[in-house]
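TOKENISED FOLD:
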Amino acid sequence: GFTPHATVARVKRRTPELVRAIMENSDRDFGVFRAEEIRLKKSVLTPRGPLYSTVLSFRLRGP
């Protein structure tokens, strides 16, 4: 079944260098951004890589 989630990143291999970089930056503040739109995406994993399509999108209202 479907499990709702937010994918931040996808990697093919978990390497020691990747794990170390994530751990070294786990408490880092990457700043603030302003979202103007939200898109609900569907992903289908294939042997050639993921295929993405937009299921629903809507613009956010400003302050």
Q: What stands out?
A: The two ends are 37 Å apart (CA to CA).
